[in-house]
Amino acid sequence: MLQFDPAIDFKLLLAVPLIPLFGYAIQIFFGKYLPRKGDWLLLTGMFVAMCITLYMAAKAISAGYAGEEFRHNSLDHGWGFRWLYSDRGSEAGSGNIVAGIFYDGLGAGMLAVVGVVSFFVHLFSVGYMHGDRRYHIFFANISLFTFAMLGLVLSDNLLFLFIFWELMGLMSYLLIGHFSHDPNSPRIKFAASACKKAFLTTRVGDTCLFMGMAILYYKFETLRFTELWELVRVTVEQNGGEYPGWLTAAGLLCLGGTIGKSAQFPLHIWLPDAMEGPTPVSAMIHAATMVAAGVFLTGRLYPVFSPEVLEVAAIAGGVTALFAATIGTTINDIKGVLAYSTISQLGFMVAAVGVGGVVPGMFHMLTHAFFKACLFLCAGSVIHGCHHEQDMRKMGGLRKFMPITFVCMLLSTIAIAGIPLFSGFYSKDQIIAAAFERNMLLPSSTATFVSIALPAAALLTAFYMFRLIFMTFFGTYRGGQAEHHVSLAAAGHAHVGHAHDEHGGGHGHAHGGHGHGGHGHGGHDHAHGGHGNDHSGHGHDHDHGHGGHAHTPHESPLPITLALMVLAFLGVFGGHFWPATPTDPLAHHGTWFQKVVSHDSLYGEKVARFVEARQHHALGPQAVPHDPEHIEHAKHAAHGKAVVVSLSVAGAGILLAALMYLWGKIRPEKVVGVIHPLYELVAHKYYWDEIVNLLVIKPTMALANSLKWIDEKLVDGFVLLVGFTQRAFAFFWAWFDRTIVDGLVNFVGLVSQSLGAITRLVQTGRIQQYAAFAMGGGLLAAAWLILS
Amino acid sequence: MQEHILSWITFLPLIGMAAILCVPRTNTGLIKAISLAATGIPFVLATWLYFDLFDKSSANLQFVQRLDWITSLGAYYYVGVDGLSLALVWLTTLLLFIAVPASFGIEKSQKSYYALLMLLEVGIIGVFVALDYFLFYVYWEVMLLPMYFLIGIWGGPRREYAAIKFFLYTLAGSVLMLVAIVALRLQAGTFSIPELMALAQSGAMDGSKLPGGGELLGMGFQTWVFWFLFVGFAIKVPVFPFHTWLPDAHVQAPTPISVILAGILLKLGGYGMLRACFPIVPDAFRANTYVLGILGVISIVYGAYVALGQSDFKRMVAYSSVSHMGYVLLGMAALTEWGMTGAALQMFNHGTSAAVLFLVVGVIYDRAHHRDLNGFGGISQVMPKYWALTTWGFFAALGLPTQAGFVSEAMTLLGAYQSADTRFQALVVISLIGIVLTAAFLLWAMQRVFLGTLNAKYKDYGDMNAREVFCQAPFLALCLILGVFPWLLTDWMAPTIKLVVGTLSKSA
Amino acid sequence: MSLGAYVAVSAALFAIGIVTIVTRRNILYVLMGIEMVLNAANINFVAFGRHYGGLPGGGGGLEGKMFAIFTIILAAAEAAVALAIVLNVFQAFNSVKPSEADQLRE
Predict the structure, then answer these.
(1) Domains, chain C, ranges and CATH?
(2) For residue A708, what is the nearest residue in chain B, using CA coordinates?
């Protein structure tokens, strides 16, 4: 039953990306005219697609548990899309690019995650985007976004991966900029520049990836992953175990693509700005698509990366994980915290790949997708419930108003913080273990750095995530009133809200000591709770906020909460379904992912041995391979240490957050006061945006403007100068011609003219004068006749 | 009919022109109808030729016709197509066919306008099908004349300046070309381009039949002939530093003429190099590929930078053409199959994407009567359809995968990277700056014109009408179709390109 | 009366006619001048015909008279044509002065 059947399953797999694609095509042209603007159409489509991905993933997982090889390429079964040079007949001619569907354990997992997250994001959007003026366009775009990611996961070659990769860039542009067309949106301006920034920043990475691709294609004449891995292995082995320089360069450039797409330092700047998009889009970008694509690429290109490239990846990932986590502690925007948390978690993944833990890295990508999607959607629900308020200082106490959102968000937060039994723990623990293992087997400053940076980042993660929970859901509600003095009913609230707002100037005080205000809102909440159960009548939050009754938060409608609950469930159990093996809650015998994805299943046996040898620097003649027992021992020790470390950092982070924001034992202002300069630096995101602006954007614009000047003044000026000199020359000859050459001609004319003028005197045209002349002539003739 | 199909395609517009001249100038409806027919029928014929009649597995010239013309000179009426020219002929017929409805907004002396448009089509198609150098040159000049009037009469405020600049600049190139053509005639005794190529292959292009071994200005025969021809074509492309006529001409020309100018006229330069310059003087070409590559890369990066600095919408688009046409030169200079295919594709694809961009500018200019990028804002709120098509056009132009521009740029760059001359690898790396910058200036323009707060001045604007959509739709559809199924072009070109690359890289 | 007297009258008439033709601006006077010149000639014809009519080889004096009659008929025809022209000229130019009728078209 769960055997992979090439005859049918490739068609099913092909249908997965095609369903959203057709959905897009229908929606973009006819969505406006469909009932409910066509959301049901895409929802149904995505549901079918999700079911297929799950069904296919079940096959992959069952194969994984049975220990069978699970790597399928549709080209082996004569199925492919001819893109270029479809020279009929000559199949393997140079330049033939034929794309197939590549489906392995990693692809299966990723495809299922994308399918599930996308479906629930679609579902969430039904509630969240209700009443948006470009509702149908939004659904169309998010479907195409999904299509691009699904296509990327299924690509069997780098070029097609790149195509879908770039398509995602386009869709992120359109979706982040969704509000840039909405005159009612307060974000209209920011969205307009955020979408541009996202596209351009990732495009810098994309061009790097393209260049890397060019090198690989130049050397290997193929871009198919399976062939690339094998060719790299052969090349390196022929090269005496060393990666040639060009391969390192290609690897670095491809890693540049990851750095751009997965928002790693220094190209991370676009991701926080991408928060300008609607929240479902943020969930898509941060969880299942876009940023995950970058990490997915490292998984696909792992054997191509030389040790130097991995070193760079480890450093970039470690730096990103740590520094984004520090920024996360200072942000007050609820989505902003999550954005930096995503950057930080991506840093974990990239660092994991860098230290050789490609499997944990990919695993974290999947688990992160679940809980981060859930977190974003919860944040969306909170924002929705708080009438599009995003500042956590104006929230608080929401657990009473939005219980479902609260529970889901709490579960996901625990997952991301890395508490055992929750999915995030298993993957993060494995990453830290991989770093430790690397540091034990091959101590190096990079490995040491990563081994310190990742736990530190994990601590900060636990801290800022619980800070978010405490500020948002605990304490008392502080928001909603200050700006609205619409009616008398609202005025009372305004007073309460005002008192809080003064405190709000600091950095979030949810230390529950402030007892006022909360009671007034409960009644309103109930009113909205009833609202929320009505599927069709919910969610028109634009109507709220007027008339003085609507300033209390309310639970979100069913499509939203349903999506939250399912994703929260996955966030808990997606890493390791421990109820099935209750005796092994820490998954010492491996999670489902490790059963399905391993070096062998990813790259095939030969390449897997190759990457493991590279990992332990056992390539080449002078390598000293570690004794397998030693490796086994180190692994064991690393895992033991990692469990302890990750548990203690998570606990410490949560404790610290609770001390500061729940119990009020430590006042955040004091902490800020003590480390003021550092705080300023972090709160300004290390001034990186400003630095980029100063070092990249300003010089580029200056160069553009000066080149424009050069073009107009010098290049065109030269043309005009040539024209001018030619004209000056021409004027001289024209003068010469007029005065000298033509002068001679004119002189001849003048002479005859003056002669003519004289003779003309007698030619008056008067008949009487002529008669007189004739007479005079006759007289003269007569006189002459007579006188002679 | 079938064996003379090229002549039919070429001269049907001429018949149309004669018919237009017989119609009273007040009967504009009939004039437009004739124009549509006289451009539409060649389009149908060209489509038939492309998909049905043409044998795409062959690299030979097809539908060849050779008639005596000026026997005393040895000039023939000699036409034919191969994979390279066929696609461009088809694109020409399509573009001109679209240019007619795109011109319906023009009010000023319509009779002469459409008559000149027909003449222009004759000239352009003639260049693409001509196989006799003399005929080629005649068509080349025929095309210049209507263009001069179309810019100079129907253009913007500085139209005379732009028209004269365009005319003189191109004419200067033509003169150099003419000198080279005469020298080739003296050397080879024929105007026939295929014969010249064959002679070049046998090493007969050495200037031995010219006084002094054909030397000029201290350069060997092939070298100076090459440079003369190259400059003649490079002005048309245009290659930096011969590009400054282009922004002026584009900005002043009326929208449909800008579309033709960017869509087709620029391709004549690239096509001319590939057909009538490189294969005829292959030794000189091989010796200078790197210089050409550098010029190409300068055009790419420099054009993109200058476009980024523009505040005039149409000037920006004009400079984007400079940047995009740089790929053509880079791809050809790399002398690889992929590079050459990429260059040929880029010529075609730029034809479609640049057409869209100029139509986009035309739409907003018709409403706002200015093109200052900083003077708009938030247009997407009142013109969502326009915004959608523009976004599509912009992303097609910046080389988004699944759009045709990506195929050609990617093939060009991958091909250039494979070049036997490894110095090209550095050029490819530099040209990547152009890719990022292209995205930058297009998206920045997008932001300034369409996104953000609506400028209250424009709140009453109507969205694109059906005619405007009809004009853009085919090009956008082509961008998408050729991005997903690029073999619709490459299959036809592949044999010819294989042959061209083979003969070019093999020294005599 | 001797021949001399006739010739003198004729010469005077001729002179007056010529002067009238040359000097008068009105075309009617010019026409009258022409009539005078013609009549001066007629006088001469008649006078010389009478004077030499009886001589051998002469026409018996009738030749002179015949010429005179021809001339008178001719002059009448001429006057009719001329007056017609004058009328047309007057219509076209609203003037009968020859100096003002300097265009051959309307």
Answers:
(1) 3-100 (1.10.287.3510)
(2) B306
